[in-house]
Amino acid sequence: MDRFPKDLQDRMREIYSNSNGKDTVFYLRPNHIYLGDARELLTQIEPNSIALSVWSPPYFVGKKYEENLSFQDWQDLLKTVINLHFPIIKPGGFLVINIADILVFKDPSMPRIQAEAVGSKRSPVTKDAVLKAIADHPGYNRYQLAKFLGCSEQTIDRRLRGNNIRGGKYKSQTRVKIVGGLVEEWALYAGFYLYDRRVWVKDPAWENSRWASISYRSVDEFEYLYFFWKPGVTKFDRERLSAKEWKNWGSRGVWYIPSVRANDDHEAKFPVELPTRVIRLLTDPGDIVLDCFIGSGTTAVAAIREKRQYIGIEILERYVNLARQKVLTESLITERQLCFLDLKTLNEI
Q: Which one of 47, 88, 157, 267 is least enclosed by Cβ atoms within 10 Å?
């Protein structure tokens, strides 16, 4: 405590104390996946016990599990969850959030985009041609004009009203919403500081078909990892990674990791390599790793492989069952490997 600046000592004194005035407290046990809302269950985790919390929240991009969330609901969810992490992260520990920008953020105030898509499969009928047809046939409605010009009535409407709008003429325009600033603001409010950030470059969506659009928008092929630090003494151990690992990714700001090829059992899985790197970089064997949006259980699997403890929280029962099954399978594999190593050691003796 004396190592902190004076103005931080009083603020941190309560954080270092595990006492909450209760005689008996029942906390969530490590190495379990819990069914429930993170906003409720995070309060049941022992204070100052989590070395690392690494998770990927809903991205507000229209997935089934977030379809009932408004943008304000989504913001409230993340802000609350981040705030509830501060008491449970060890001083000097980390909260790492994997998230992406919102690429199709609906904005009713955005002006209509007038798209002139040169080189695309666009009707050759021009606005001048439509105006001439109207002058020649003043009694024609748009359906008759369309038949006369050999195009669709939607083309007539677009040429006359200038509403060749991305996403439909009656829908709000969409733009990119940068999420990093929001996450940083919520974390600072909770007491965390942005220590580092990494970019995860995955293979592009629709890799096999080499998808491209007629707009200038890029294919979605990267996400962010924001590393938030809780004030305290942080252990730096260069032995956690080999020299080659430090060179290839430990000290690199950009991580190239292929995305999950088949989201057959969960629609938004990340590769096990992603939490594995974070776990190896920031924790030691035996430390507790938390994922409060654990989904299919990937973070727990990574923790088991790296000999860390884990706590998982998931609000949907079907994903809890899936995560528990994956954890059980991984634990059995690990036990077999340990038995094999023990037998090998006995044989060598």
A: 267
